[in-house]
Design brief:
The protein has 71 residues and is an all-alpha fold. Helices cover 69% and strands 0% of the residues. The N and C termini lie far apart (42 Å).
Amino acid sequence: IQFNASPKENWDRFRNMFHVDVESEFILLQTQLMNMKMKKEEKLEDFFLRMDKIFSKIYSLGRTIEESTIV
């Protein structure tokens, strides 16, 4: 952020930096979700809890995943 730029220019730069971070985090979480496998001794309930944590993080970013992507 530059001191000699207008407030709008600074805001736009800040928003763009944040958007990239959100997009990166979303892609990382989506990849984790797609690569999830149930551990050998893991209960089904625990597997779903791990999956739910990832979904919660995705929703907190303001994003969703299409059902067709999950299947």
